[in-house]
Write a structure and sequence with these properties.
The structure is a single chain. By secondary structure, the chain is an alpha+beta fold. The protein folds into 2 domains: 9-170, no CATH class; 255-397, Heat Shock Protein 90 (2-Layer Sandwich), CATH 3.30.565.10. Helices cover 62% and strands 12% of the residues. The chain is built from 10 helices and 5 strands, in the order H-H-H-H-H-H-H-H-E-H-E-E-H-E-E. It has helices at residues 9-28, 44-54, 61-75, 82-98, 101-126, 130-212, 216-245, 262-273, 294-314, 352-363, and strands at residues 278-284, 318-326, 330-338, 367-376, 379-389. A 5-stranded mixed beta sheet has the order 1-2-3-5-4. A hairpin with a 3-residue loop joins strand 2 (318-326) and strand 3 (330-338). Helix 6 crosses helix 9 (294-314). The longest helix is centred in the middle third of the chain and has 83 residues, at 130-212.
């Protein structure tokens, strides 16, 4: 897009003031020199030209400078109006301030060389100290406004750069804030799903069984499981709500579940899955060794928890095996469950559990796989496998 050639309002005012002031000085007979070859009204021509060029001081500063220089030279053959000289100095200043970066660098040096050349030339011609006065005047109408333009331009550029840096800093801060909020929401979603889904799945399955089977003993057992899971789920929800409310307070952090609690987790799964013909076993081959990093233990626990919940919702009757193994590089978690048709009640699934497990492994730079994997005694096995690096400096979940 090309810049508009319409003069700026301030430039119109400057041009009008310069022309009006020049006319007043010419009317009063005020001139900077007397005895030019073109006296009288000839001085109005370069004055009018310079006033017109003031309209171009922003839109075409270099063109205005070139034509203004010619107008100033022409003014030397007239009575030389002070208004013409002042308008020329403003055009030099504007050429540096509003011109291209190259022009802003070149004009001060050019005016300095012109000042030196004029001083030396008139010194050689007059052979008197009057040449120094001419050099000073030349510097005042060329070099001084050019230098002033450089200073103002540098200050303006510095202010613009500071403004851009402030905008970029604010933008980066907003991006960081958005990413932090998104990451926190994802973490909360994983925690909420992993803590509550197991209880709600058990409630859904046993409530379906209680409604579909006309047997008082079965109904009572189902209602007992439903009550236990309702109470446990409510406690988990209260704990999560308490953590959210106290996140800004100076409180002790809640203890994250560890692999030492897997026995309790499997006992609960055994109770919830008894009516579905599921049995649960734990094979912990880790042995004695250094304590695993807390993020790794939490991720492994949640992956086992979610896998047991999925088995409770979808697995065919049979054994569900949990295996743990640890090397110097990684903790390996495997959960295998019968994969096939199921005649009993099922709980609906959304796929969020697999997404959450995969995210937990990815945040630790680990590997996650889930799908049919070979056959067992009862048929096809659905296996969940995760390798979680145990090195220091990993991410958190």
């Amino acid at each position: 897009m090309t810049a508009s050639l319409r003069p700026h309002r301030d430039d119109v005012l400057i041009a009008a003031a310069g022309l009006l002031g020049g006319l007043v000085l010419w009317t009063l007979g005020v001139h900077t020199q007397v005895g030019g070859p073109l006296p009288g009204a000839w001085a109005l021509i370069p004055m009018t030209v310079l006033a017109g060029l003031e309209l171009l001081r922003r839109t075409a500063p270099q063109t205005a400078l070139v034509l203004g220089t010619l107008g100033l030279i022409a003014d030397q053959f007239t009575g030389t109006s002070l208004a013409t000289v002042l308008m020329f100095t403003d055009i030099v200043y504007a050429a540096v301030l509003y011109g291209t970066p190259a022009a802003a660098r070149r004009i001060p040096w050019t005016t300095a060389l012109v000042t030196v050349a004029v001083t030396i030339g008139f010194a050689a011609w007059f052979r008197s100290a009057d040449a120094l006065l001419i050099g000073v005047v030349t510097a005042l109408i060329s070099f001084a406004p050019a230098t002033t333009g450089v200073l103002v331009r540098n200050h303006r550029d510095a202010a613009e750069a500071a403004r851009l840096r402030a905008e970029q800093t604010a933008l980066l801060a907003e991006i960081d804030r958005t990413q932090a909020v998104t990451a926190e929401r994802a973490r909360m979603a994983r925690e909420l799903h992993d803590m509550v889904a197991n209880h709600l799945s058990a409630i859904a399955i046993h409530s379906t069984a209680a409604l579909s089977l006309d047997d008082a003993r079965t109904t009572r057992e189902a209602l007992t499981v439903i009550r236990e899971n309702s109470v446990d789920g409510l406690a988990e929800m209260r704990r999560l709500i308490g953590l959210l409310r106290d996140s800004g307070a100076d409180t002790e952090p809640a203890a994250a579940p560890t692999l030492a609690a897997l026995d309790t987790l499997l006992e609960q799964a055994e109770t919830n899955g008894a009516s579905s013909g599921l049995t649960f076993t734990l094979d912990d081959r880790r042995g004695a060794g250094p304590k695993l990093p807390t993020p790794v233990e939490l991720a492994a626990y949640r992956i086992v928890q979610e896998s047991l919940t999925n088995a409770l919702k979808h697995a065919a009757p049979g054994p569900v095996a949990v295996e743990l193994d640890c090397s110097e590089e990684a903790l390996t978690v495997r959960i295998g469950s019968p994969f096939g048709d199921r005649s009993g009640p099922r709980a609906p699934g959304s796929g969020a559990g697999l997404v959450g497990m995969r995210e937990r492994a990815a945040l630790l730079d680990g590997v996650f796989e889930a799908g049919p994997a070979g056959t067992g005694d009862g048929g096809t096995i659905w296996q969940v496998r995760a390798e979680l690096p145990v090195g220091e400096g990993r991410g958190t979940v």
